[in-house]
C-alpha cells in the first residue's frame, strides 16, 4: 500500500478552513467526527458545540473537500512512487509534483511518465526520427521535405520523406500534448469556450427514443449539469448517440478565419508556447491530437473532484492510470 504524501503548503485542515472561511479548530473537530463515523446531518444537528455551529451546507462542503484532498494526496504518493521506480524522479520534478494543487495539475505533470502502450511517437523515435523533429521545431523555416530526405530508411520503416515527416509530427504532437503548462492553459480555454455536442446515430431514432432530448443537442461546458453529461454518456455507450467535443474556436473579434493556412487561436497559442510565432507548418496537422488529449470522452467519464460542473466534467483531468 502506498502511503499518502502531504503536499507542500498548509495542512488539509487549514486549507479547508481558509476555503470555508471558518476557524481551523472547527474543521479539525468536524473531521474527527466524520472519521469516527458520524454523518453530516448528525453533526449539524447534535454536535454544534464541537464544530462551532457549522451548518449542514458548510459540513457537506467540508466533507467533499476533505475527500478530494485526501484522494489527491493518495494519488500524489502513487505518482511519486511510479516515477521513482522508473529512475526519473529528480528534485525539480518532485517539487512540481508536491506543489500540484489539483488532480488535473498532478495528472498533467505525470502524463509523460505514465506507463502506456507503444505509441506512434515511440515508433518514430526508434526509427531515428527524433533529431528530425527537434530540428524542425528549432527552425520552422527549414524546408520540411528537404530536411526529411536524409532520414529515409526502408530498413527502419521510413519509406520516403513523407513517412519521415509523419513520424516527426507524431513526436512533436506527443511532446506538445504532454506539456503540463500548455495543456492546463488549453484546457481552461476549452472549458470557457467549448461545448459538448450530441447527435443521434443513423437509424437509431426509434430504438433510442429515451434519449430523444439529445438527438440534436449542444451546450457549453460552463452550463452543462452532471445529469446531462451522464445521460449523454449512457446514450453513447448504448450506441444511440455520437458525442463530439467542440473546442469553440473563436477569436476576440469573432469566429476564427477560415483562410487556408491561417492558424486557429488554439494553434496560435500552441505555436507561441513553443516559440514558433506565425510558423504554422508543423502545428496545424496536430491540432486534433492535442484537443483530443484535452477532451477525450474517457476524461468525461472520470468522476468529479471539487464538486460541481467543472470537475464533474473532468475536462480538467488527463485521466488516471
Topology (elements, then pairings):
Elements: H1 12-20, H2 24-35, H3 40-46, H4 48-51, H5 56-85, H6 91-99, H7 103-110, H8 120-126, H9 130-138, H10 144-148, H11 161-177, H12 180-193, E1 195-200, E2 216-220, H13 226-237, E3 241-246, E4 250-251, E5 254-255, H14 265-273, H15 287-295, H16 297-300, H17 309-313
Antiparallel strand pairs: 1-2, 1-3, 4-5
Helix pairs in contact: 1-2, 1-5, 2-5, 3-5, 7-12, 8-11, 9-11, 11-15, 12-15
Q: What string gives the helices and strands in order?
A: HHHHHHHHHHHHEEHEEEHHHH
Radius of gyration: 24 Å
Q: In angstroms, what separates the terminal alpha carbons?
A: 16 Å
Overall CATH architecture of the largest domain: Orthogonal Bundle
Largest sheet: 3 strands, antiparallel
Low-pLDDT segments, ≥5 res = 251-258, 280-321
Helix percentage range: 40-55%
Provide the CATH superfamily of the largest domain: Tex N-terminal region-like
Mean pLDDT, all residues? 81
What form results from the Cα inertia axes? extended
Amino acid at each position: 500500500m502506498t502511503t499518502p504524501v502531504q503536499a507542500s503548503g498548509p495542512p488539509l485542515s487549514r486549507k479547508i478552513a481558509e476555503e470555508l472561511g471558518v476557524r481551523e479548530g472547527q474543521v479539525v473537530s468536524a473531521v474527527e467526527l466524520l472519521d469516527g463515523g458520524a454523518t453530516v446531518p448528525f453533526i449539524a444537528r447534535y454536535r454544534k458545540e464541537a464544530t462551532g455551529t457549522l451548518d449542514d451546507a458548510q459540513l457537506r462542503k467540508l466533507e467533499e473537500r476533505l475527500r478530494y484532498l485526501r484522494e489527491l494526496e493518495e494519488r500524489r504518493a502513487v505518482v511519486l512512487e511510479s516515477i521513482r521506480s522508473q529512475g526519473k524522479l529528480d528534485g525539480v520534478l518532485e517539487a512540481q509534483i508536491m506543489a500540484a494543487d489539483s488532480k488535473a495539475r498532478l495528472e498533467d505533470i505525470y502524463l509523460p511518465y505514465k506507463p502506456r502502450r507503444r505509441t506512434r511517437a515511440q515508433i518514430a523515435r526508434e526509427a531515428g526520427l527524433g533529431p528530425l523533429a527537434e530540428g524542425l521545431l528549432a527552425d520552422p523555416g527549414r524546408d520540411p521535405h528537404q530536411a526529411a530526405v536524409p532520414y529515409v530508411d526502408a530498413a527502419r520503416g521510413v519509406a520516403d520523406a513523407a513517412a519521415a515527416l509523419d513520424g516527426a509530427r507524431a513526436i512533436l504532437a506527443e511532446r506538445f500534448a504532454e506539456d503540463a503548462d500548455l495543456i492546463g492553459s488549453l484546457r481552461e480555454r476549452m472549458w470557457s469556450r467549448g461545448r459538448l455536442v450530441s447527435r443521434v446515430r443513423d437509424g437509431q431514432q426509434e430504438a433510442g427514443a429515451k434519449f430523444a432530448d439529445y438527438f440534436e443537442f449542444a451546450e457549453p461546458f460552463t452550463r452543462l449539469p452532471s445529469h446531462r453529461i451522464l445521460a449523454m454518456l449512457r446514450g453513447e455507450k448504448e450506441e444511440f448517440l455520437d458525442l463530439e467535443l467542440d473546442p469553440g474556436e473563436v477569436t476576440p473579434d469573432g469566429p476564427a478565419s477560415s483562410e487556408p493556412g491561417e492558424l486557429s487561436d488554439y494553434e496560435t497559442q500552441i505555436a507561441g508556447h513553443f516559440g514558433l510565432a506565425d510558423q504554422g507548418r508543423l502545428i496545424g496537422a496536430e491540432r486534433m491530437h492535442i484537443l483530443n488529449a484535452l477532451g477525450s470522452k474517457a476524461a468525461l467519464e472520470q468522476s468529479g473532484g471539487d464538486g460541481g460542473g467543472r470537475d464533474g466534467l473532468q475536462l480538467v483531468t488527463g485521466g488516471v492510470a
